[in-house]
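Structure tokens please, single chain.
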Amino acid sequence: MEEIRTTDYTDDYPRWKEEYKSTYKILIPDMLPWHFAIIEGLLRQEGYDVEILKNSSRTVIDEGLKHVHNDTCYPCLCVVGQYIDALKSGKYDLDHTAVLISQSGGGCRASNYIPLIRKALKREFPQVPVISLNFSGLEKDSSFKIGAKLLLKLAYAVFYGDTLMWCYNQTRPYEVTPGDSDRARDELVREITDSFRGKRYKKFDEINSLIIDRFASVERKKERKVKVGIVGEIYVKYAYLGNNHLEQFLLSEDCEPVVPALMDFLLYCIVNNINDGYYYGRKGLVWRIYKLVYRIIHGKQKRVIKLFEKEGSFEPVHDFEHLRRCADKVINQGVKMGEGWLIPAEMAALAETGVENIVCAQPFGCLPNHIAGKGVIRTLKSLYKDENVVAVDYDPSATKVNQENRIKLMLATARENLAAKENK
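Here you go.
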């Protein structure tokens, strides 16, 4: 009888090797525009030839639809579309190009993007390795190696990116001279990136104060504007491609966008592992390490908050322990699939700091985020009577016009509420 041989797909893809570092260009999807502006420069200093992809035309979405089933979540479609569109552009030496994607390791489909990306690339770009950036032990044969020193630098970069984003969004809508906020942002990105060339990046209070003071020096109008929080699935919450440039749209509508810190998501992932110890008895060495890491990072966050309070011009970033208390009013912290309890926690924390108008951005069909996003809106409105929330689905079939019209309806109510408060 003839032997039937089966080929395991995992044996049929190019692996990333660290020796490729000096000869390969690594393409990264623009998932976190604020933070990647800093991280791109940092990785270049570490010897990696990286490029953050900025392609965002309709061709990107069409390429995603060609290579990924349309039932797959929208962020995956966007990421695959950016990769394929870039690789087809003719700009890159395909024999010396790789693509990189992060993996959370949680129950979200994002943890399964790697095989989907490999399948999409296999037909036309079989030589292009897919690199995984993860801290969960996934993809051991094609993972991005991060030593303790680089990990520390990345953590600082996230904190600085958060402070930069937070100050910019509280300055840009009120600037007296158009362009002052953009100039401050660009100058600070260069200075922050340069700080990683030596050890200055460790001067945590100094650099955060530099960012806060620089934006505080921008002359601003003393007027009240509608504040709009942006929460939801992490990709469409931050990525301009994923949310159709939501921050810029809100600015064009004369609003102040309020985007929660990325570090909150990272702390959320850490706390979920700590909670597993309490819920399921997983209290080994790794659990104790997570607790230690959480104390260190949360301690850094509290230092940032004190710097904001000392300067006094801006609303401070949220304290993560306050976010946890906000979550407990709405949903159990055991609800951790996708962005889970973090979404209602952020919506509650925003309401408590005067940001009652919220866009909950969700990929269509993302079940965890629909449950923890749309599913808690009624409860939140019972707790915060003036909370004005619109849940917006982002999907290749959803038009930008329809999305913006839904947001405009929410803004009409927001403006009426603001006018009523001012007339009291």
